[in-house]
Amino acid sequence: MQDKEEERSLVNVEKKLSKDGYNQDFTVTDGRLHTMDTSTNKSYTPEEVTIVDFYRFEGESNPDDTSILYAIEANDGVKGTISSAYGVYADTDTDDFLKKVEDLGKNLTKKDK
Q1: How confident is the model at residue 2 (pLDDT cuts 50, 70, 90)?
Q2: What's the CA gap between 88 and 58, in Å, rounded?
Q3: pLDDT exceeding 90 applies to what percent of the chain?
Q4: What total of structural domains would you count in the chain?
Q5: Considering the domain boundaries, does residue 8 fall inside one?
Q6: 108 domain-assigned
Q7: What pLDDT, on the 0 to 100 scale, is given for residue 1?
Q8: Residue 31's domain spans which residues?
């Protein structure tokens, strides 16, 4: 039986999401979500993406060291992930963008794993 903490490690979750087609890495700049892959070079507004799932990770020694990994799908089928620190270390551009997506009601309920 796999250790629950090991199962929920960031690396293992990223591997699982990659197998499920979430291969793009996203970043937020100027209020838009951008693919980090320069060959695709796409960007999206909050209205063009859906938060499909998210995973929260806490630091081993410091509860303030928390991050969230979001699985995101764009309206053109591009799937990828973006991570954000949680709390005082949060990237405000990323958090503002994801909050707009959530406010639009486009975040889905988590699927059974």
Answers
A1: very low
A2: 14
A3: 52
A4: 1
A5: yes
A6: no
A7: 39
A8: 4-103
Domain CATH number, residue 71: 2.30.29
**How far from chain centre, in Å, is Cα 104?**
17
CB 56 within 8 A of CB 66: yes
Secondary structure of the chain in the HEC alphabet?
Answer: CCCHHHHCCHHHHHHHHHHCCCCEEEEEECCEEEECCCCCCCEECHHHEEEEEEEEEECCCCCCCEEEEEEEEECCCCEEEEEEECHHHCCHHHHHHHHHHHHCCCCCCCCCC
Is the residue at 94 inside a domain?
yes
Q: Which residue has the higher pLDDT, 8 or 3?
A: 8
Q: In angstroms, how far apart are the furthest CA atoms of the chain? A: 45
Report the predicted TM-score, pTM, of the whole model to 2 decimal places.
Answer: 0.79
Q: Residue 47: inside a domain, yes or no? A: yes
Does residue 69 contact residue 83 with C-beta atoms inside 8 Å? yes
Higher pLDDT, 107 or 78: 78
Which residues face 32 on adjacent strands? 29
Which of 61, 68, 78 lies closest to 98, judged by CA?
A: 68
